[in-house]
Amino acid sequence: MELSQTAFSAEDIQSTRPELKIGLLATVTPEGLPHVTLLSSLMACAPGRLCFGQFTEGLSKKHLLANPKTGFLIMSLDKNVWRGKASYTHAVKDGAEYDYYNNVPMFRYNAYFGVHTVYYLDLVGHTGKSPLPMNRIIFAAVQTMLARTLNPGSGRLPVLNTWTRAFVAKIDNLKFLSYVDADGYPVIIPAIQTQGLDRQRLVFSTSVYTDELRAIPSGTPLAVFSMALTMEDVLLRGTFQGIRRMAGIDAGVVSVDWVYNPMPPVPGQVYPALDLEPVSSF
């Protein structure tokens, strides 16, 4: 990912401001692994700054406090994309952005949630606005479908349950990959063509965003965020097994070992299953 821009233009700031968009923030866990969160409030709020409003609890905010390095992706409804890296600096509970978030319809009329904290990040660099290459993505999705159909596998472990496999398999659902770059900042790459290979592995054609996908070293911990425009989503994480030739197609394979439900009201780990603990305080 080439970070050719060191500031957001006035057009960038205006284009990323609407609440109806896709905003993804990649953070780093205490173990040094990538984590991706859907933040519809994420936007450029100054030439060198991004911000987002918090209205639910989740792991990403905890990660920021321990490690300020982040990666981000913002996609508008007309499928223009901004990607880059930023560093968390501080959070506030008032101010211009706080007032803005709590006066837009998405949050103002939400009966359950209101933005209670605004987080700010200093921009490191971004790619500039670029259109999502839909024709190439569709071709890559067809290639991925052929690769997984002609190379069926069973998977040694039942990591992906029936719902998760069906959700990732939907061609019109969005998928994004993330890994921690050599500089310690996470990177997010659109990989909408990603599909399930079996109960444990994912596969994706490398015919779109080719250079970026080929730059991921084999053995790298990789997060895969899958979402629908209905705001359903799931976060998977595992190990990138490299690029192999499958049915004449160059395809990347991810062996999944962790599944997380990011959706409110109760985000939580799905796989490996956690032991149930009795309630000890009320």
Residue-averaged pLDDT, rounded?
91
Radius of gyration: 19 Å
Which outline best applies?
Answer: globular
Report the helical percentage: 10-25%
Query: From N to C, what is the helix and strand string?
Result: HEEEEHEEHHEEHHEEEEHEEEE
**Strand-residue proportion:** 35-45%
* Main sheet summary: 8 strands, antiparallel
User: Based on DSSP secondary structure assignment, what is the total number of beta strands?
Assistant: 16
> Which structural class is indicated by helix and strand composition?
alpha+beta
Structure in a nutshell:
The protein is of the alpha+beta class and 282 residues long. The protein has helices spanning 10-15, 59-66, 96-101, 105-108, 134-150, 162-169, 210-214; strands spanning 22-28, 34-38, 43-46, 49-54, 69-75, 80-92, 117-126, 130-131, 174-180, 186-190, 195-196, 201-205, 221-227, 233-246, 249-261, 268-271.
What does this protein structure show overall?
- The protein has 282 residues and is an alpha+beta fold.
- The protein contains seven helices and 16 strands.
- It has helices spanning 10-15, 59-66, 96-101, 105-108, 134-150, 162-169, 210-214, and strands spanning 22-28, 34-38, 43-46, 49-54, 69-75, 80-92, 117-126, 130-131, 174-180, 186-190, 195-196, 201-205, 221-227, 233-246, 249-261, 268-271.
- Strands 1, 2, 3, 4, 5, 6, 7 and 8 form an eight-stranded antiparallel beta sheet that branches. Strands 9, 10, 11, 12, 13, 14, 15 and 16 form an eight-stranded antiparallel beta sheet that branches.
